[in-house]
Amino acid sequence: MNYVKVVFLKEVGAFVGSDGKIYGPYSPGDEAIIPEEDAKALALEGAAARIGGYIIEQGKTPPPYERRGALKTVLSSPFLLLWIGFALIIIGFIIMSFSAISPQGFIWIFPLPPIPISGPEAILLAVLPIAIVLIMFVVFMYLMLRH
């Protein structure tokens, strides 16, 4: 689709261009870039005149929002693998944290010193550091993917 720059010589109401977009309304002296077919039709009516004498060609490149969507689909596979890997690491840490609870009532989460505690609080303390790391990772991934 070719576009040209025109100056309007008469009042022109809003119209649907040959590219399907809505143009106008325009007053005399207004400049606009419109499809070449519409510029020819307006020139025949005496409503507009081409200025500059150049044609702006619309390339075949997709609009930026389509390119960004394509980029996300290309990047989604590595991010999916990253999520799976991180989930497996978190599951491993949780299992290790549960195994850190000893029958004598001590819990030891590396790199913290052993803590004398027992009961449900021990499980909470074992899972809490992992939950904090997981939340930080989810926030980081959200910030990376939202663009």
Overall description:
By secondary structure, the chain is α+β, with helices and mostly antiparallel strands. The chain folds into two domains: 2-57, Ribosomal Protein L9, domain 1; 64-146. Helices cover 50% and strands 20% of the residues. The chain has helices at 36-45, 64-99, 120-146, and strands at residues 2-8, 15-16, 22-23, 31-35, 48-57, 106-107, 115-116. A three-stranded antiparallel sheet has the order 4-1-5, with helices on one face. It is rod-shaped. The two termini are 31 Å apart. The model has no long low-confidence stretch (mean pLDDT 75).
Helix percent band? 40-55%
Distance between the termini: 31 Å
Low-confidence stretches: none
Order of helices and strands: EEEEHEHEEH
Radius of gyration, in Å, reads 32 Å
Counting H and I runs of at least 4 residues, what is the number of helices?
A: 3
The outline comes out as rod-shaped
Count of individual domains: 2
Secondary-structure-based class equals alpha+beta
Largest sheet: 3 strands, antiparallel
**How would you state the average pLDDT, rounded?**
75
Number of distinct beta strands:
7
Range of strand content: 15-25%
The side-by-side strand order for the widest beta sheet comes to 4-1-5
